[in-house]
Amino acid sequence: MKCPYCGYNESKVIDSRPAEENNSIRRRRECLSCARRFTTYETVESLPVMVVKKDGSRQTFDRGKVLGGMIRACEKRPAPLASLEKIAAEIERDLQSSIEREVSTQSIGERVMERLRSIDQVAYVRFASVYREFKDIDTFMEELSKLLAEKDQH
After folding, report:
1. Domain spans of the chain?
2. Measured CA distances, 74 to 68, 80, 103 (Å)
3. Of residues 41, 133, 121, 134, the one with CA closest to residue 78
4. Residues 144 and 125: beta-carbon distance below 8 Å
5. Which of 68, 24, 75, 16 is nearest to 46 (CA)?
6. What pLDDT score does 102 carry?
7. pLDDT per residue as tens digits for the range 25-44
8. Most CB contacts within 10 A, which of 9, 62, 67, 70?
């Protein structure tokens, strides 16, 4: 590891410990030339997942956008932010572990709705109404009817 102070290419590791919920390793290093210390982080290299949007354009997956959509759907609802963050992390992990390097916004939306349904049904309907682009009250009522039917079965 190159020293950020003097540019020397050799350093020794003084301390290593897990960081960011065991997703990386924090290392304290000491330069073998100038003896100054610095910190590095080691993470697993992950290939970007590309999201194919409705118009055919592509962009890299952004967990923040998924989380933002769920937060808007859960506005003024009792859904805990920690649960929403967990869902976003689960979806990102699922996509990273998938063989596919491209995923449609439709697939991501379905994953979000599947998980939101169990947390807050009102938030689920809100998210679905934007995501599925409900055109009129009939489409909205169909989705509510499905929810009610499921609730009656349980």
Report:
1. 11-43, 50-153
2. 10, 9, 24
3. 121
4. yes
5. 24
6. 94
7. 999 999 999 999 999 999 87
8. 70
| Tokens (6 digits) for 74 | 């859960």
**59-87 average pLDDT score:** 93
**Cα 24 to chain centroid, rounded:** 17
| Residue-by-residue DSSP string for 118-151 | HH-HHHHHHHHHHHTT--SHHHHHHHHHHHHHHH
- This model's pTM is above 0.85: no
113 dihedral zone (left: phi>0; alpha: psi -120 to 50; beta): alpha
Q: Got the DSSP string for 29-65?
A: EEETTT--EEEEEEE---PPPEEE-TTS-EEE--HHH
The residue assigned the tokens 């998938």 is 98
| Beta pairing partners, 43 | 24
